[in-house]
Design goal:
- The chain is mostly helical.
- It has 14 helices and 2 strands.
- It has a two-stranded antiparallel sheet with strand order 1-2.
- Strand 1 and strand 2 form a beta hairpin.
- It is globular, with a radius of gyration of 26 Å.
């Protein structure tokens, strides 16, 4: 009697242990390369190097009051550098940002003083004017398709002329009148230009506002839909429009954010010095743009962060005050800025290539 054997199911042997094969797209890059791909890492290392350099060459910088002064100088640049950086990530830049600060301060000062109104009326009207200038820049750019360089250069020249002409017409001088005895001045000064004590050292309120705005800008960029829109329109606005990104709204709102920054810094200048020189502000726009570029933002758009410009502005403040504390000729300040700017551009280019290299 023959017996039939039932076929046993084939058992697939387990794969041999060893390194898994990858197709190159799933290779995890080393931690160092991933960190270097962050836009703020390069400027952070640069800021540390500049700080160490001046701590050795300029002993007065080791004093707490000197560092508070450096932070103050950095904050007046950094508050404006933040919206300028967001605008640059969105693919545009604003050459009128420097004179727009003075326009805001002049508006608040002359309106309140000449009409003998509460200072807060001038502050609110100045905010409206600053937002309107930003909205015009964005709207004109979107409607005409002209480069932001040409649009904001035109606005720069218009505001520069209006600042000088209107101030002379209204006050008979190139500067506004002293507003320190007007109603509401003390409350406005407390908000925009006051100081507080930390460990016996006077710290300006702008330092606090600077850090608050930096945290808020970082949250917007990294955690909100609007932040995604900013990167999208800066990378490729046509592709962004094709996937439903409101390109027009994003561009205009970014210019309006620059207007808000100009208003805030303008109010700080007004309530710090009680008067405003109508010819100031020219050249400051380059400082704001340079701080953003040093902070890792690309002029081509679509790349950058909000933290990078914080370190960029801090580097500016350190160089500006460090040269004085070291006893050097302050004329070297602009030369240092030029060197930092060129160095930052080269570093940003290398970081971008490293980030996209497989």
């Amino acid at each position: 009697m023959s017996m039939t054997r039932q076929a046993e199911p084939a058992v697939t042997p387990p794969p041999a242990s060893g390194p898994k094969e990858t197709d190159g797209r799933t290779v995890r890059r080393p931690l160092a390369l991933r960190l270097l791909a962050r836009p703020e890492v390069g400027v952070f290392l640069g800021a540390v190097a500049v700080l160490v350099f001046f701590l050795f060459t300029a002993p007065p910088m080791r004093d707490g009051s000197s560092m508070a002064n450096i932070l103050y100088q950095s904050s007046t640049i950094g508050i404006m550098a933040l919206p300028v950086a967001l605008l640059m990530i969105g693919g545009e830049f604003d050459l009128s940002a420097g004179v727009a600060v003075i326009t805001s301060a002049l508006t608040a000062s002359m309106l309140s003083y000449q009409l003998t109104m509460n200072i807060w009326v001038g502050v609110v009207v100045a905010l409206v004017v600053s937002l309107a200038v930003g909205m015009f820049n964005g709207w004109f750019l979107v409607k005409t398709g002209l480069p932001s360089f040409l649009v904001t250069l035109g606005t720069f020249l218009i505001l520069q002329g209006v600042n000088l002409a209107v101030t002379k017409l209204v006050t008979g001088n190139v500067a506004t009148d002293d507003i320190s005895d007007m109603d509401g001045f003390d409350q406005a000064k407390a908000l925009f230009a006051s100081s507080f004590e930390v460990g016996g050292i006077q710290v300006k309120i702008t330092v606090v506002w600077w850090l608050v705005f930096a945290v808020l800008a970082s949250w917007v960029l990294l955690r909100t839909k609007y932040g995604n829109w900013i990167f999208a329109v800066g990378g490729n606005k046509e592709s962004a429009r094709a996937v439903g990104v409101p390109v027009t709204f994003t561009k205009i709102s970014l210019f309006m954010l620059v207007g808000f920054g100009a208003w805030f810094v303008g109010m700080h200048q007004l309530f710090s010095f009680n008067t405003v020189q109508s010819g100031e502000g020219v050249g400051q726009e380059l400082i704001y743009i340079a701080a953003a570029v040093i902070g890792g933002c690309l002029l081509t758009g679509g790349y950058g962060s909000a933290i990078g410009p914080v370190f960029g502005a801090f580097m500016f403040g350190m160089v500006q005050q460090g040269i004085v504390y070291a006893g050097w000729n302050p004329d070297w300040f602009k030369a240092f800025l030029g060197v930092m700017l060129l160095g930052a551009v080269l570093i940003n280019l290398w970081v971008q290539r490293t980030a996209t290299r497989r």
